[in-house]
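Record 1 of the preview.
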Amino acid sequence: MLGVFSVLVGLPWFLETPAMGVSSQIPGDGPAYRFEELTDGVHFAIGTGAMVVMSNALVIINDDHVMLVDSSVTPAAARALVAQIKAELTDKPIRYVINTHYHFDHAHGNQIFGDEVEIIGHDYVRQMHLSNVLEQRTNRSFTEIIPSQLDSIREQIVRSDGQNRDRLEASLRISEAHWNALQETEVTPPNVTYSETMTLVKGGREIQLHFLGRGHTGGDTVVLLPAERLVFTGDFLLGHPNGPILSYMGDGFVNEWSKSLGRLKELDFDLIVPGHGEPFRDRDYISVYQRYLRELWKQVSKARNQGHSVAEAVDTVDLSQFEEHYGEGVRDVDPRAVLRIYELLQIQMPI
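->
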């Protein structure tokens, strides 16, 4: 999940960046997803702007079935994805769903699938889905702000006219539909789990699931297609047409993440397909993110050792050295990332 903290002006945060997979299922506004065939039978799915979908998915079409990697943000978004797969790609049944991690934007579509579908995830994903995950910080921080954002859009509509009014009214319809869709959610955990690696050889294709160590969460899965030489990384490593973007870190293990990314480098692939943003091929970005994570940990640790509060540490951290890779936004560190690092440091060395 992306680390957006502040309320953006004019539109909800999830409607600001097309690379995040935002879309609407408003009649006449087109399909919710865009499909891109990466290799024979393997399709990248990203939101178009017709409905809030938030995260990317990977559609793997095998001889007699379909595998889906990540099930989207709500049951409504998952149903839209499944319907579009049937209409545009294949009428073969979806038999496997893989969750790259437990966060809502990648796994809260699980509930639309019946018992005949194997929903596969790391042990940690099932553990978290069986907890009160809807009440936990991450889910709440990304959803509790939506009602106030809707009110803000309504107020702007009253003061606007012309094309801007049309844009705001469309965003309000999309946002209201998403808010309503969230109310339907029943967290549905994987019914098949693994701990380190799992290999599926099904329908004429090999798919490998790897847990490379804690990073974005305590149970991230990267999905490797060895013959196709591509890896779907979820939020373990994100992408963008002009370079990588930063993962949300509110549940991360920032002190371990760099080492886990080192294990990603050991896998054999050419194409990186991320959970947000566009696919990319430059493996050097893995090293860039490793350096960023180490520097963030170093600076926040120093701030804590000096007795700074989380808020003071947010103002102290200077990551401008990474601006060439991540843009000006890298200067504004997510307070939730700093809070998470303080929590990890408290476990390591209480004060």
